[in-house]
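Q: Protein A?
A:
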Amino acid sequence: MFDCLRNNTIFAVLTAMLNNIVNPKAMSKKENKEQDILKAAEMLFAEKGFKGATTTLIAAQAGVTHAMLHYYFRTKDQIFLKVFDAYLDEILQSLKSIMVTDIFQPDLIRKTTEICFDFFSAHSGQLSLLLEVAKERPDLMESYVSKIGNYMSSALDTHKKRTESEVVNGRIRNITFEELIGDIVSVCAAPFFFDPLVSNVLGVEGTLRAEYLEARKKEAVELIVCRLFK
């Protein structure tokens, strides 16, 4: 039985590899399959958490065999990291247009905070996933944070120096760049950590929920502006 399963797995992988070599359209098909797997993983991670979203479930949701999933991604860790790569790219692209030299202006800080709030709103289901992985798989989170740090080291250093310069020149309150990022993430993410309580226990849903979140967004923006500017 095990020999049969092993042979079927090898056959599936070899078939996929040969398709990529022989068929010019195979690469496009490969990319589509990868996206199907990542979309399925994103949905299941949000629904079931990291532990509950098994590769078997992800493969079934994506409409591929388990062997085929492992052809594209060797481990669930790789799938998780690829999903979070997409989130990182999304927020960076959203912020790219306003990451100018003179970022420390009230209007630009407001816009930055609004973008971060909207990002957490769009991905609120992933917040509990992030906490789960940080608690259960700290090694995975540490390696990912380290990877981000190495990838963005130059940009981060630039923003740190800008923040220090603004503090020295008295344009903003005494704060480090790390503290600023922590403050923005905290005030933007907090409403979504409490969202299950607000929605399920207090019964704030529909229009009321939208109004509640819009009010929290305005509060988050003004909190960050007041934190920075005298």
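Q: Protein B?
A:
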Amino acid sequence: MKYIVLRSFVKKFDSYSKQEQELITSTIEKIKEYLETNQAPYGLRIKRLSKRIYEGRINIHLRIAYFREKDIVKFFCLGNHDDIGFCLKTLKQRLK
């Protein structure tokens, strides 16, 4: 499986504290493990948002959204529930 982290994700990642960055990095590794083994830890709470877009929970406030197509996974959005909603809305407008 190939994993890609988009520039928008990195920009948002850089705005978080070192402690939050470590938590985000750990969650990304858990998502990768889930995609390889198909077994997710309970706290990760993987949720399908659309046909190819999924969300993983970092903690009660933070989430990661990623796009999956065959063997390619793109991490494209990071933030709270509202941030993820905004990213999805923006993505839908770009695809029109």
